[in-house]
Amino acid sequence: MSIETTSQQAVQSAEAQVRSDDRNHVFHSWSAQALIDPLPVAGGAGSTFWDYSGKKYLDFSSQLVNLNLGHQHPRLVEAIKRQADRLATIQPAFANDVRGELARLLAERAPGSLNKVFFTNGGADANEHAVRMARHHTGRRKILAAYRSYHGGTTTAMSLTGEPRRWANDPGDASVVHFFGPYPYRSAFHASSAAEETQRALEHLESVIQLEGPGTIAGVILETVVGTNGVLIPPPGYLKGVREICDRYNLVYIADEVMVGFGRIGEWFAVDAFDVVPDLLTFAKGVNSGYVPLGGVLISDAIAETFANRAYPGGLTYSGHPLACAVGVETMHVFEDEQIVQRVRDLGERVVRPELERWQREHPSVGEIRGRGLFWAVELVKDQSSREPLVPFNASGEAAAPMNAVAAACKAEGLWPFTHFNRVHVAPPLVISEEELRRGLDIIDRALVQADALVTG
Fold first, then answer.
1. 235 DSSP 8-state letter
2. In a 3-state reduction of DSSP, which class is residue 378?
């Protein structure tokens, strides 16, 4: 038996063991367990990961839009090793050097008076704690959240969520009220322009506040740029209008930047693109590319002062875990040294936008493209005039087949796509090379032929 044959058998055996362990013992998120077949992943580097057969995939979803600095970034891996050798963990009640340094670096980059950081394990609990802070700060209970949003899988975060994953989990937090955010392409307000969409969406939000009773509402939570539910870029003036409404009614404005913070749209924090400062800003994902679970809440001075002389009623065993914070500190330095924010802006405007605009002209299935930096959505339709979605809202099974065909075509050519409902999203690691980015866009371009074949008219 040849060395090569022995090696192949070893690889096949390893893959078989991974599949067996996964299928027999791992319970997967958001899935009917018997209907899934997870791909065993053997490794990754940069913008690519590969399976046990050696097939490589360009990671055009950055895993869950968290792998901003890519797979196995050597500086992030080394940061974990250094910290593990020195101090692997310490409880939150102690002061810790990397925890404090990361908090300072975040505060220095955050807008306004967001000077304190409460660390969490991820985005869902960041939103849970932001809501808790808002409620204790104001003495009120209700939180307003938008439809077409996702804020996490824990109880209050799930209740804040305004998309179908919430349905099976209701009733949750009964003090959450949903409203419509702006979505010019499919306007709930019958707007004919971005300016009209902004005006009518703000009038709607204020009406909800008045009807619910301003004195009962603690705050408003919004994804600065809606993520999974459409990469919805707020039209000009909308977020400033939300800020003004919150000020007028003494509401806490919570910006959920779990997905869009840390360079994703070409800004340290997405609110910077819209010249607005929230009272609380939640983060996770890109703060350390998910190498060790980490999230948090950036807290304004006014809200922090609420808890100066009375205890904040919340905490986590792993709040500000040293291994996670060490990677976060190194992430801040990598962003500066490699000019990540600047390169994301450049690639987004010079490479991605022109290519997607070409798709809109040449593919009859492309209804709208929208995005900034390295975060884009391509909305697929059956008819560009009627804007009928390529698949129904929340489609599954056979109804979702057209989108599954687009995704399968991408995977066949070595690209792992991010699809949701009737959209293909473009969200590669921020360290992706221009050559890789163009190659990945070319693959999606070819895959869109699957959708074009279903266009009517």
1. P
2. strand
Q: State both tokens at 127.
A: 């939103």
Nearest alpha-carbon partner for 209 in 174, 251, 268: 251
What is the identity of the amino acid at 105?
L
- What span, in angstroms and rounded, lies between the C-alpha atoms of 360 and 378? 9
How far is 403 from 419, CA to CA, in rounded Å? 7
159-179 pLDDT, tens digit per residue, is 999 999 999 999 999 999 999
Distance of alpha carbon 115 from the chain centroid: 23
The pLDDT score that the predictor gives to residue 9 is 85
- 108: exposed, middle or buried (Cβ count in 10 Å: 0-12, 13-18, 19+): exposed
Handedness of CA 30, 33, 39, 41 (dihedral sign): positive
Cα–Cα dist 386/163, whole Å: 23
List, in order, residues 6 or more apart from 234 with CB less than 8 Å away.
181, 182, 224, 225, 274
- What's 71's DSSP letter? B
CA 114 to CA 111: how far, in whole Å? 6
At residue 200, what is the residue type? R
The DSSP output letter for 419 is: E
DSSP H helical segments within 380-454, as ranges?
Answer: 401-412, 434-447, 449-452
Reference 224, options 315, 313, 149, 318; nearest CA is 149
Rounded to a whole number of angstroms, the CA Rg of the chain reads 22
At 118, is the secondary structure helix, strand, or coil?
Answer: strand
- Chain segment 303-349, per-residue pLDDT in tens: 999 999 999 999 999 999 999 999 999 999 999 999 999 999 999 99
Alpha helices (H) along 87-185: 97-109, 123-138, 155-160
Distance (Å, rounded) from C-alpha 67 to C-alpha 331? 11
Which structure tokens are listed for 112? Answer: 């306004």
282: tokens are 């939640």
